[in-house]
Amino acid sequence: MPETQNILLVGCGKMGGAMLRGWLSRGVATENVVVIEPFEDAAVALRDELSVTVLDDVTAISPAFAPDIVVFAVKPQAMDDIVPFYAGFAAKGAVSLSIAAGRTISYFEGHLGKGAAIVRTMPNTPAAVGRGITAACANSHVSSVQRVACENLLEAVGDVVWVESEDMIDAVTAVSGSGPAYVFWLIECMAKAGEAQGLPADIAARLARATVAGSGELARQSDEAAGVLRKNVTSPGGTTAAALDVLMAGEDGLEQLMGRAIDAATRRSRELAG
Prior knowledge:
This protein is α/β, with parallel strands linked by helices.
């Protein structure tokens, strides 16, 4: 992202903070960033650590600061009390980028104006360690320049994919937004199964965690499809094959179970979006 782009970050919790640190590490100048954070302790910590301008309210922003991008990183339930105060920036051409779950593009258009440039995203929690993936969807008012600028911001915490239809965000939420919890549950289940086979609890937990983390990193770095990687460690008639015979068994198999889980999460995402 060009260093001359001005960024207004509204809310600086875990996700907002991860993004902010990512931007600064990629060369964004502190004078090009203003943070709105009403909690004084958090504001003081941000000023001390990152030397950025942190204000408690939008009305405190200097008229000399004109944001090119307004990033909404507050909880969805707080949006109604916050978003309308930023309509003036949207009217002046700033693109609004939201990382709030369940808040649609039409929601932001209703508060910021029908002509507002809006990018709705769905990040996930590995963004906290720079290994997230974010799906983004833009309305028709977002220019190609604004799209690139938003992508550069999001890449500070991981990979970015664009979906052309906002309807896909519900499936994205089910797969990657909620996905880290499925992986953590897998670690728990593997550890418990190892314990049941006689391993000490701490060793079973360490083995499970390291195996999932290492396999994920191997998959990230490899050009091979996941199916190929699976076959590479599966010898015919071996121990891995014996386990996969259980995990891939018919209606009780992991593929079918995961399909039902993703379907349930997708439906719930649609319900929450209203």
